[in-house]
Design goal:
Length: 331
């Protein structure tokens, strides 16, 4: 392609006015691009999370109010994460299978209030339920056992689907779990429940505040590098995505977000499927800390980082800033 060159070509012409910038914008952020992760707790008080200023855990009886706010702001889906009481955690994470656990009650509360007016995504992994904070069942030497864990995860997914979850999102990084969950859902009559696979989930330093939020940080010994991906790898992410799609995932996720935008772009270029990115708790905390320190304008930081996911090719973003962002875009 031949282009004119300066001075016949002046790139600034298209940038000179707001209307012109809007006309040539290549990507746009819309409230329907956002999924809002919410934390659920027992009791009747909201519990602020110190490492995530502005984010609280919500009791079941107040979770539907959050979903209504999300719906009103044009957000299509919320994600639910439980802070399981310590006495209900055990080495096998059995509370994950309890049909009356926090997550199942929260799903029920939102469905009662809103029915199909908003989607509900639930995380499948055992870490909110285990006394050791790992995502699966442990061997005597502390290694997470893959195949036994996968059986538990399929049961956990069925428990959430029975409660009304619309999207099952396995975040555990066990091998073969997407296929096992898809079969279990099909066998039990939940063939319309979607699977959004955390296909490329990295062993990241950005998950710290989330572990505070679900109460697993103090319990976790060691790390999750035996199952979550090495931050050095991108081609491996493509293999993970291919496997999860072959096993029946409807959409895939890359996580964390900003530090892995190259992976989002590669997945989008290779596969014709919806790709989501998770702007995780540590990213949220970084933006809040930067804004609080006067290092940048909070609203602008939120919108610029979220737009970057769209530019990279993401269909949508899970972000703790979802409600604020949707309201900013809408206003
Ligand atoms: C649980 C899970 C984690 C996150 C989502 N699901 C943490 C982890 O793997 O330790 C992190 C989300 C965030 O940091 O916001 N398997």
């Amino acid at each position: 392609m031949t282009h004119a060159s300066y001075p016949a070509l002046r790139m600034r012409r298209a940038r000179a006015t707001a209307w012109s910038r809007a006309m040539v914008a290549e990507s746009r952020l819309h409230p329907s691009d956002l999924i809002w992760p919410l934390f659920v707790c027992e009791g009747d008080e909201a519990q602020p999370i110190a490492t995530m200023p502005g984010v609280s855990r919500w009791p079941v009886e107040r979770i539907a109010e959050r979903a209504v706010e999300a719906r009103d702001a044009g957000i299509p889906c919320v994600g639910l994460f439980p802070n399981t009481p310590p006495d209900l955690r055990c080495d096998r994470g059995e509370e994950a299978l309890n049909p009356d656990n926090l997550i199942c009650r929260a799903i029920g509360a939102i469905k009662d209030a809103l029915g199909d007016e908003i989607g509900i995504l639930t995380d499948v992994a055992l870490d909110p339920y285990t006394s050791h904070g790992q995502d699966g069942l442990l061997d005597a030497d502390g290694t997470v056992r893959n195949d036994d864990t996968v059986s538990m995860l399929a049961e956990q997914a069925l428990n959430q689907a029975a409660a009304g979850a619309d999207i099952i999102a396995p975040s555990d990084m066990m091998d073969g779990r997407v296929g096992a969950i898809r079969h279990a859902l099909e066998d039990d009559g939940y063939s319309n429940v979607q699977i959004m696979a955390y296909a490329a989930k990295y062993a990241s330093a950005f998950y710290g505040p989330f572990r505070d939020a679900i109460g697993s940080r103090g319990l976790l010994k060691g790390d999750k590098r035996g199952y979550q991906m090495d931050p050095a790898n991108a081609e491996e992410a493509l293999r993970e995505v291919a496997l999860d799609l072959a096993e029946g995932a409807d959409s895939v996720m890359v996580k964390p977000g900003l530090a892995y935008l190259d992976v989002v772009a590669k997945v989008k270029a290779r596969f014709e499927v919806p790709v989501f990115a998770y702007q995780v708790s540590g990213e949220y905390a970084m933006i809040e800390a930067a804004a609080a320190a006067g290092a940048g304008d909070r609203d602008a930081l939120i919108l610029e980082t979220l737009l970057a996911f769209k530019r990279a090719g993401a269909s949508g973003v899970l972000t703790y800033h979802a409600l604020d962002a949707a309201r900013l875009i809408g206003s």
